[in-house]
Write a structure and sequence with these properties.
The structure holds two protein chains of two kinds. Helices cover 13% and strands 11% of the residues of chain A. By secondary structure, chain A is low in regular secondary structure. Chain A has a domain of 61 residues. In chain A, 21% of the residues are buried. Among the domains of chain B are: 84 residues, Alpha Horseshoe (Serine Threonine Protein Phosphatase 5, Tetratricopeptide repeat); 80 residues, Serine Threonine Protein Phosphatase 5, Tetratricopeptide repeat (Alpha Horseshoe), CATH 1.25.40; 85 residues, Serine Threonine Protein Phosphatase 5, Tetratricopeptide repeat (Alpha Horseshoe). In chain B, 77% of the residues lie in helices and 0% in strands. In chain B, helix 9 runs antiparallel to helix 10. Classes of the chains: A little secondary structure, B mainly alpha.
Chain lengths: 175, 389
């Protein structure tokens, strides 16, 4: 299901002149046309080469929550248990499976740094910080609240109908 | 008193979230009529939304010089005082909510301050009244939802947060909180549905894709997790965490060879990561390379003796080799760093029971029983039953 997934080639810019002699400065020596780049695929980063076929058992993964989520957790502490071929530990007449180490769903699961003190973002993207997002969302209440300022707003009242439209509405209709 | 306010158009901009433009318009209007109370209040709101409390204070005092009983202005000033560490300001905030004229901001400011003070019951009352004053405020719904979650009232939290999602459809925050509430009730499927809907309108949102990977895995839908993990890798190709998430989603989907390939690539970028090493050891074992996996785990345990996953895998290997005493060592060491880790307690209980120490095994199994992971809690309960607990 997951082979080489081609990405759409970037569309050419219609405002750019096409490469060719007309677009080169007259004095410049004719340079060989650059080799066209290979079609962009995600094989380098996301695609997979042909892999040898896996013939082992289905891992039978069961996922669970390591910790009950709190009201402002940045992540859900999800873990994956590979349950196939579990070691049965004999305890007298009964036997129970030993659990292999749960595989965490992300690398940075664990104690989160305080808001604003996280590690620098990887790859240039701004890191999302839950506490900061909650504070910003809360503060927006002062801007977006629909309650009035407690004073009459007169002509510039808050309905979408303009003053002119209101006057027009009151005018007698033409016969 | 002066004539009617001209604040309407600027207020409309403010309500659309165009805070900067609204502030500029309010300032221009105040140049024309410095006594326009509507504009003073509007600009003060814009400054509070930007946390420019000092600027807001000046405007609010101007309002009170004209209308000394203006409830909203008094409430904002008291709230700013409270934020500055003036605890008695909370009394004024509470008193303002008792007025018959009290409106949304009197309740909202009091509720927020009470939450910060840790008075959850008082905050609940104030925020419920704020909700009654403005049914369409997503901020109040989020505050109430978080408060219900804190109190373990997950159903009520879900109701409030679902409304917040409706009222603020372009913000990822309410959906993230809603999915947390669903996960806490064991209904990860509905959480994944909510995140999936939000991704239709916010397809580039990194926090939403991150949550989608987690909650889809929890719901048992690894294909959705794979899709979001791939989206994350497209959005940020340099982040090794996203490659790791992709590998875990592949493993959960049964694609072991593909998971191994991604993990080997991630290990080159994060050579000391115990999570990557442990996951890689698991796929090696699945591929029949037991000795290679054990060597990798032992080396990783030396590097990160407190890692719970590695400790459990080592303990299982030692139990398999018939050495329950040796199995207990990595588990006890990892419990020093992770005292509430359910799987560590469960495996330790098994090793203790196998070594003949039933009392210690019962105590460990009882600790594992409280784990929110259903697989662990059910096995711990079965173990307690076997041990006669």
């Amino acid at each position: 299901m997951y082979g080489l997934i081609p990405k759409m080639a970037a569309p050419s810019d219609p405002k750019k002149p096409p490469p060719g002699p007309a677009s080169r400065p007259a004095a410049a020596a004719p340079a060989p046309a650059p080799a066209s780049p290979p079609a962009r695929t995600i094989s380098g980063e996301l695609g997979l080469p042909a892999l040898s076929r896996y013939t082992g058992p289905d891992p039978k993964v069961v996922c669970g929550l390591l910790k009950a989520p709190g009201p402002s957790d940045q992540v859900l502490e999800v873990v994956a248990h590979v349950t196939v071929e579990a070691l049965a530990v004999s305890l007298g007449p009964a036997a129970l499976p030993a659990l292999r180490g749960p595989v965490r769903s992300r690398l940075d699961s664990g104690p989160q740094p305080p808001a604003g003190e996280g590690p620098p973002p990887v790859g240039g993207a701004a890191a999302f910080e839950m506490e900061l997002a909650i504070t910003r969302f809360h503060d927006r209440a002062y801007a977006v609240s629909r309650v009035g300022p407690g004073v009459p707003l007169g002509d510039s009242d808050e309905s979408t109908v303009t003053g002119l439209q209101k006057v027009a509405w009151k005018l007698p209709r033409p016969c | 008193m002066a004539g009617p306010s001209k604040a309407g158009p600027a207020l409309r901009l403010l309500r659309k979230g165009q805070v900067e433009r609204a502030a500029e318009m309010f300032k221009k209007l105040l140049q024309q009529d410095p006594s326009d109370i509507g504009c003073q209040v509007g600009l003060a709101r814009a400054q509070m939304a930007r946390k420019r409390y000092e600027d807001a204070q000046v405007l609010l005092r101007q309002v009170l010089s004209q209308l000394p009983d203006h409830g909203e202005a008094q409430s904002h000033l008291a709230f700013i005082d409270f934020q500055a560490g003036n605890a008695p300001a909370l009394d004024l905030l509470k008193r303002l909510t008792l007025s018959r004229k009290a409106g949304f901001f009197e309740f909202f400011n009091a509720g927020t301050a009470l939450l910060q003070r840790g008075d959850d019951q008082g905050a609940m009352v104030a925020l419920e009244r704020a909700k009654a004053a403005d049914q369409k405020s997503p901020q109040v719904r989020v505050a109430l939802g978080r408060l219900h979650m804190k109190r373990g009232e997950h159903r009520e939290a879900i109701t409030e947060l679902q409304k917040a999602v409706e009222l603020a459809p372009s913000d990822p925050l309410p959906v993230l909180l809603l999915s947390q509430a669903f996960a806490a009730t064991g209904d990860a499927g509905h959480g994944a549905d909510a995140v999936g809907k939000a991704l239709l309108t916010q397809p580039q949102s990194i926090p939403l894709h991150e949550r989608m990977v987690e909650i889809s895995l929890l719901a048992g839908w690894p294909q959705k997790a794979i899709k979001s993990a791939m989206a994350l890798r497209q959005l940020n190709r340099l982040n090794p965490n996203y490659a790791y998430m992709h590998a875990v989603a592949m493993l959960a989907s049964g694609l072991v060879a593909e998971a191994r390939h991604i993990l080997e690539g991630t290990l080159q970028k994060e050579p000391k990561s115990p999570a990557v090493r442990q996951a890689l050891a698991q796929v090696m074992r699945l591929s029949g390379e037991e000795q290679k996996a054990l060597a990798l785990l032992e080396e990783t345990h030396q590097l990160s003796p407190g890692d719970p996953g590695v400790a459990c895998d080592l303990a299982v290997a030692y139990l398999k080799a018939g050495d329950p005493a040796k199995a207990q060592r990595p588990l006890k060491r990892a419990l020093e760093d992770n005292p509430a880790h359910g799987v560590l307690h469960y495996d330790l209980a098994l090793a203790q029971a196998r070594a003949g120490d039933r009392a210690a095994a019962k105590a460990s199994a009882a600790k594992a029983q409280g784990c929110p992971d259903l697989l662990v809690s059910e096995l711990a309960q079965a173990l307690l039953g076997t041990l006669g607990g």
